[in-house]
Amino acid sequence: MIEHAAAPVHVEHLRPGDHACVEFDDVESRWEVLTAFAQIGLARGERVMLLLDPDDLDDAATVARVDDGTGVAAGAHEHGHLVVARNTSLYFPDGRFDADRTRRAYAAATQQTVDDGHHALRVAVSMAWAPRAGWSDDELMAWEGSAEHLFRPARFAALCWYDRARFSEHMLAGAREIHPVHVLDRLSMLEVTRHPGGARIAGSGSREELTRVLTDVLARGPEQSPLHFELDLAGARDVDAHCAWMLIDLAGALPPADRLVVRCDRSLEMVLRGLGADAVPQLELAVASDLNDAAGVA
User: Fold this and answer.
1) Whole-model pTM?
2) What stretch of H or E contains 30?
3) In what order do the strands lie in the sheet with 228-232?
4) Helix crossing, 241-252 with 266-274: angle to 10°?
């Protein structure tokens, strides 16, 4: 379980017990993330529930979109491992909202999921039901903050998604504050956070995008003090040997006092060390699993 992540995480990092939010600007990015959310959950033996707005794709089109030609989601839907429903059917089954009833419904669905032999229930829900019902920002934030007990024990995970066009910045900021986990809105995305002593880069992207961003961020003036850079690749996908060589070369070109710390998984660590990372003093490797163990993250 990820607790109060300091930076947005990729959807593949979600675990049972996580209460997460994500904001979208466009439909294609939303479906990319939801497809990954569903496919990862099914692969882990979890039941996946997608609670869509009534105006969204119908059930058949949703299953086809999530299946992405693999046949996995279609079979899962047929056997009840993938459930597609409308958010209004859960939140307003009789035309009115009842907070206790909704919490009980989530708890019952989680227990039924476990009884049916799944590891956990993961739900992605469109929060468009709230403005549809005329709720204020404060009403929605109060609801979002009232359901934490559902995530203990860790048999339930929820990804609440917000369409930026439908919600105020006040509401979106509140959602980020309330949810312990904030998910990146794209599968391929690099976020750069600059600070006086260097910069932090997190996310994943194409080889070309990573090269461009790193080259720009690592550029420095000769008069600057030693800088500290962090590159979080723990959630990155498809970091190949060419990209690993590029990281080593860029780190080796830094002034001797600078540091580039790469946070990665075991497999990428092995690739980097095999290509000579240990011979570059400016490059430090931090393995994600070791960091999580030290922090007590399950």
Assistant:
1) 0.69
2) helix 27-43
3) 189-195, 198-204, 228-232, 259-264, 283-287
4) 60
Could you say which DSSP state residue 245 is in?
H
Nearest C-alpha neighbor of 42 from the set 8, 3, 80, 13:
80
Q: How far apart are CA 215 and CA 181, in angstroms?
A: 29
Task: Return the structure tokens found at 109.
Answer: 């669905």
Tell me the mean pLDDT in the region 75-88: 96
Instruction: Return the closest-CA partner of residue 237 out of 205, 262, 259.
Output: 205
How many CB atoms lie under 10 A from the CB of residue 252? Answer: 15
The span from the CA of 64 to the CA of 66, in Å, is 6
The tokens for 134 are 């005329």
For the cut 70, the answer to whether the pLDDT of residue 36 exceeds it is yes
Q: What is the pLDDT of residue 235?
A: 60
Whether the pLDDT of residue 180 is over 80: the answer is yes
- The residue type found at 88 is T
Confidence of residue 10 (pLDDT cuts 50, 70, 90): confident
Quote the Cα angle for 181-185-187, to 5°: 105
Q: What is the pLDDT of residue 208?
A: 75
